[in-house]
Write a structure and sequence with these properties.
CATH architecture of the largest domain: 3-Layer(aba) Sandwich
Number of domains: 2
Radius of gyration: 21 Å
Low-confidence stretches: none
Largest sheet: 7 strands, parallel
Helix content: 40-55%
Shape: globular
Number of strands: 13
CATH topology of the largest domain: Rossmann fold
Order of helices and strands: EHEEHEHEHHEHEHEHHEHEHEHEHEHHH
Mean pLDDT: 95
Strand order of the largest sheet: 3-2-1-4-5-6-7
Oligomer: single chain
CATH class of the largest domain: Alpha Beta
C-alpha cells in the first residue's frame, strides 16, 4: 500500500507533528510512505529527526502556493498512490484540484485542523470569500474529509455546505503511549530545566502568535496571589512573531526572573513531566494536541474553553479546569485553584489513552478503507 502525505513544511507545529506520528506508525505496520513537503523546511528546529528513516521524503522547495498544483499533478500522474492525504487549507483545495486533473488516481483524503472561519479573519492572509469558494467547489470531490474535533467539523460543513455525514471526526494521535520516566529522572529534569527555588512550575507550549494568547497567560500568572507568585515560575516553549511583544510585557511586569520564553524544543516531554501545572490560554483551537501531551504525563491542566477542542478533550471539565476565553481574572483564579488542589494523576493519564497514535492511526486506516 503506497501512501502520499502532503505537508506545507516540517517545522515544529501541532498538525505537522501529528502527521509524523501517523507516518511512523504506518511504516511500522508495513505501509510505504512518501512525504511531500511543499516549502523549504531548513529551520534549526524541525521534525526531520523524528521521521522514520524508511519514509521517502520529497522536498518540492516551492516559493508560492500557486506553483503547487502543477508540481503535485506531475507527481500524482507519475506515481501510483493508493491513498493521498492532504491536511490544512489551502493544501487541501490545491491537492484536490491536482488529483482531479490526473483523473482521480487512487483515493484522496483531506483533513482540517483549525477553525478556518476564525483563523482566516485573524491569521490567514486570504479573503474569506476565496476560501469559501474553493471549499464549496472542491471539497465535495474528496474521497473523504476528516475534522479533528466536532467544532472543526461544524466549521467545515458551514463553509463548504456539506452535510454532516460527509465529514468524519477523528481526534489527533497526540499520545505516544511511552513508559514514564523514573522519579529520579523527573527530579533531574526539575533541577536542570527549572529554577531551583520554585515550588510551582507552570508550563505553556505553542507558537507565539495571536491564536495562543500567551499575553493572557503572562498577565494571569502575574496576578496570582503573592504567596503563590513568589514561589512560582512560568516557562513557555515555542517561538513566533509575538516574541518581542511578550518579552516587553514580561519586562514591564518585572518578572524576568520568573518567566522564560524557552523557544522551540524538539522534545517537550521533560518539561511536561517536571511541571506542576499546564496552561492553555488560546483564543481558539482546532483540537489542542498539547492538552493530550499534558494528560499523558499526568499533568494537571487549566485551559480556556475556546472553540474548539479543549472541552472535548477534557470532557467539559472532568479532566481539567475550563475557564473563560481571554479573561485574565478567570484564568488566574483557575491557575490558583489548580496549583493548590490535589490531583489524581492516574485519572489524567487514563484519558490520554483515547488519543494514542496506535488507536487513532487504526481509525484513519478503517476510514480510508471504507471510503469510496
Amino acid at each position: 500500500m503506497n501512501v502520499a502525505i502532503i505537508l506545507p513544511t516540517i517545522w515544529i507545529g501541532g498538525a505537522e507533528k501529528l502527521h509524523v506520528h501517523i507516518i511512523n506508525r504506518l511504516i511500522e505496520i508495513g505501509y510505504k510512505i512518501e512525504l511531500l513537503v511543499l516549502f523549504n523546511s531548513d529551520h534549526k528546529v524541525n521534525l526531520l529527526p523524528l521521521i522514520n528513516q524508511d519514509c521517502s521524503i520529497t522536498f518540492l522547495n516551492l516559493k508560492k502556493y500557486k506553483q503547487a498544483p502543477f508540481r503535485l499533478y506531475k507527481i500524482f500522474k507519475e506515481k501510483e498512490f493508493n491513498w493521498i492525504v492532504a491536511p490544512m487549507w489551502p493544501v487541501t483545495s490545491i491537492a484536490i484540484f491536482a488529483w482531479l486533473i490526473t483523473g482521480k488516481k487512487g483515493k484522496l483524503f483531506i483533513s482540517e485542523h483549525t477553525n478556518i472561519s476564525v483563523s482566516a479573519a485573524k491569521e490567514i492572509k486570504t479573503p474569506m470569500l476565496l476560501i469559501k469558494i474553493s471549499m464549496l467547489a472542491l471539497y465535495r470531490f474528496a474521497s473523504g474529509i476528516i475534522a479533528v474535533s466536532e467544532g472543526v467539523k461544524d466549521d467545515i460543513c458551514s463553509l463548504s455546505s456539506l452535510k454532516n455525514e460527509k465529514v468524519k471526526v477523528i481526534y489527533n494521535p497526540a499520545a505516544l503511549n511511552f513508559l514514564p520516566p523514573s522519579a529520579e529522572k523527573i527530579e533531574k529534569y526539575k533541577r536542570e530545566l527549572w529554577g531551583p527555588n520554585y515550588k510551582y512550575r507552570v508550563l505553556g507550549v505553542g507558537s507565539l502568535k495571536e491564536q495562543k494568547n500567551f499575553s493572557l497567560l503572562i498577565r494571569a500568572f502575574a496576578k496570582l496571589p503573592s504567596n503563590i507568585l513568589n514561589q512560582a515560575e512560568l516557562i513557555i516553549l515555542g517561538d513566533g512573531p509575538l516574541k518581542s511583544n511578550l518579552k516587553a510585557e514580561i519586562d514591564v511586569l518585572k518578572l524576568n526572573e520568573q518567566i522564560t520564553l524557552q523557544g522551540r524544543v524538539l522534545d517537550p516531554y521533560p518539561w511536561f513531566h517536571s511541571a506542576t501545572l499546564f496552561v492553555l490560554s488560546s483564543n481558539w483551537e482546532g483540537f489542542g494536541n498539547v492538552l493530550v501531551e499534558a494528560l499523558e504525563c499526568g499533568l494537571p491542566i487549566v485551559s480556556t474553553d475556546c472553540h474548539s477542542g479543549p472541552a472535548e478533550i477534557l470532557q467539559n471539565g472532568t479532566f481539567g479546569k475550563l475557564v473563560t476565553v481571554n479573561d485574565v481574572d478567570s484564568l488566574s483564579e483557575g491557575m490558583r485553584d489548580a496549583l493548590l488542589a490535589q490531583h489524581d494523576k492516574s485519572l489524567l493519564v487514563s484519558r490520554s489513552a483515547d488519543f494514542t497514535v496506535e488507536k487513532i492511526t487504526k481509525e484513519y486506516i478503517e476510514y480510508f478503507d471504507s471510503s469510496s
